[in-house]
């Protein structure tokens, strides 16, 4: 509220200053016995361009039009006086208006127009002393032009600086939004897609067992129910990132650590696929949280890819090892690339790309490729000094 009041006071002072100096211009010209109509035209055009509320600008009233027209009128007035017309006075009102228009041109006009309109406003300001002297050799005229040059430099420099701040702010906002979109896309892919893929695979298993082993269906259906519940929870947490719920972001974002890898492996196992988790005693829970979360994502993405691309795998091996301040995570399967999933469920290849970005951001390395014989292996190594 205080800030808005301050802005209102500043704007009111600026409007009052421009109106007062414009009245002074008219009085100066009138007291000299000169025709005040050209001065009134220039002042009214300039005041309309400067004071017209931005929220009420019509589409055609662009910044370049606002800054160019009053400058052209002022320049034509000065040129007419210089080319043989009667002497004409100039005052502080027109000078202030042209400086305001210069500021608007440099800060708000499109890049190509900013230079042209800024030069037009600056030249119009420098020409105003020539209305009275009709000569570049007059000492007073040169002094006034030097002062005008200084004012032009100060106003243009301030406007250019503020324009650069506007650009940096726009770039920062755009980059922040892009990073948020990437983070949300990663959460959707890593968690929701993982659970939905599990639901799809276990549903196919249930359909096959419905005719051959109906008595063993209950564990499979329980797995489907668990995966659906986890998918809804992950979706709710991800949507929470997009809504201002007042919770801390860390409480709303899907999380994972080394301890959660055990549950992940157990939840992945099915009657037709066995998951073996080997965690060396050297791997403790005292590693940095961001490393643990990245290791969890490596295992999660790798298991999801097994479901998508190696449904014929009988055995999946997950190995965690810590040596020389480096955490090694590997996931290997013995599949031959056989899958019965529809093409739409195979993924678009974004998983490994995002995974590599996540691993390298922590200074680690990610390798994936076929194993000797059958199967595929994903291996990530992180620098992971203990906390």
Condensed summary:
The protein is an alpha+beta fold and 387 residues long. Among the domains are: 2-134, no CATH class; 255-387, Heat Shock Protein 90.
Q: Which sequence of strands runs across the widest sheet?
A: 1-2-3-5-4
Structural class: alpha+beta
Radius of gyration from the alpha-carbon trace, in angstroms = 36 Å
Q: What's the SSE pattern? A: HHHHHHHHHHEHEEHEE
Choose one word for the global shape: rod-shaped
- The end-to-end span amounts to 45 Å
The count of helical stretches stands at: 12
Q: Compute the number of strand runs.
A: 5
Q: How big a fraction of the residues is strand? A: 5-15%
Mean pLDDT across the residues is 80
Provide an overview of this structure.
The structure is a single chain. With 387 residues, the protein is of the alpha+beta class. Among the domains are: 2-134, no CATH class; 255-387, 2-Layer Sandwich (Heat Shock Protein 90). Helices cover 65% and strands 10% of the residues. It contains twelve helices and five strands. The protein has helices spanning 2-31, 37-51, 63-82, 92-108, 111-127, 130-133, 139-212, 217-242, 249-252, 258-268, 289-309, 350-361, and strands at residues 274-279, 315-323, 326-333, 365-370, 376-383. A five-stranded mixed β-sheet has the order 1-2-3-5-4. Strand 2 (315-323) and strand 3 (326-333) form a beta hairpin. The chain is rod-shaped and about 110 Å long. The two termini are 45 Å apart. The model is unreliable at 245-254 (pLDDT under 50).
